[in-house]
Amino acid sequence: MWATAVGVARVRALETEREDALFRDPLARAFATAGGLWPSSPPLPDDEAAQHRRRAVSFSIVIRTKFLDDLLQQASASGVRQVVLLGAGMDSRAFRTDWPEGTRLFEVDTAAPLDFKASVLRQERAVARCERITVAVDLREDWPGALAAAGHEPAVPTVWIAEGLLIYLPEDAVDLLLARIGAQSAAGSRMGLTLGSRGVIERFGADAEPGSAASLWLSEMPGDPVGWLAGHGWEAESHTLRERAAAYGRPIITPPQHEEGPGGLVSAVRR
After folding, report:
1. What tens digit of pLDDT does each residue of 71-117 get?
2. Model-level pTM greater than 0.70?
3. Kind and range of the H or E element at 85?
4. How far is CA 207 from the centre of its chain?
5. Which residue in 44, 56, 77, 81 has the most C-beta neighbors within 10 A?
6. CA distances (Å), origin 30, targets 41, 93, 200
7. Minimum mean pLDDT among 32-46, 53-67, 133-147: which range?
8. How far apart are the first and last CA of the chain?
9. From the CB of residue 99, how many other CB atoms can be counted at a distance below 10 Å?
């Protein structure tokens, strides 16, 4: 599944080349190249609906990246100095973000993507702008134990990021992940989540190409994400992609094709 992270890197590389880029990710192109997705890309499907789905997914990646970049900056400004990226993939925020002194950033993922990433980082001679610690563990295993062994301090506030992750987990695994995060979160901790919007699996995943990212989607957001997270001890706000895109100067000009409920871009604070 981690190969989808290389596809995300390609989307970020394309955004980085825009004059009006919402963010700059100088390492994204190197990840995409090493993964065989640059300069060429997978051929566009003949089906017009499939082409639309691919463009929509790419757009959502750009908007969610900006959303979480802002959330991390706000967490840093509030004094949080521990960052945990769950399912880190090809995330390069350790290298492209101006972190305050004393920031420790943990990248949690399985060994295969972390090893691939390390080879690209060596090739690019990339230097992290904070203390970067990789934690090779499967999120279905005892990742809190592995994280603690790597130096994470649950008594100190943490900002947690689960970007493009929860949609690939069954619902019971999502709840377990949230419970584990909560157990490691001091008061004042922050969290940024991306959740599959209601109906997205039916619209995008039902006839997705085998092996594509959408074909692996398993769970959507609950009907009341704010209430759901309150039950896990978090005070949350949810935003729709349409709301955030407009705020960032990239408005979605097509009208909604269905009734839009709560959004799948979520920020939360531990009280």
Report:
1. 999 999 999 999 999 999 999 999 999 999 999 999 999 999 999 99
2. yes
3. strand 82-86
4. 24
5. 81
6. 14, 15, 30
7. 32-46
8. 34
9. 20
H or E segment to which residue 193 belongs:
strand 190-194
- Rounded to 10 degrees, the C-alpha dihedral 129/135/136/142 comes to -160
Which residue type, as a one-letter code, is found at position 228?
W
Map tokens 């157990």 to a residue. 183
Distance CA(239)–CA(66), nearest Å, equals 13
Strands 234-239 and 131-136: unpaired
SS3 181: helix
User: 160: which strand partners?
Assistant: 84, 191
**Length reported for the chain:** 271
Residue 3: its pLDDT value, please?
Answer: 79
C-beta neighbour count of 165 within 10 angstroms: 20
Dist. CA 62–CA 39, nearest whole Å: 19
How many CB atoms are closer than 10 A to CB 23?
Answer: 18
Residues 225, 238 contacting (CB under 8 angstroms): yes
Cβ within 8 Å of residue 53, ≥6 positions away: 203, 204, 208, 214
Please, what sign has the CA dihedral across residues 165, 166, 170, 172? positive
pLDDT digits (tens, 9 = 90+) for 30-50: 999 999 989 876 666 667 777
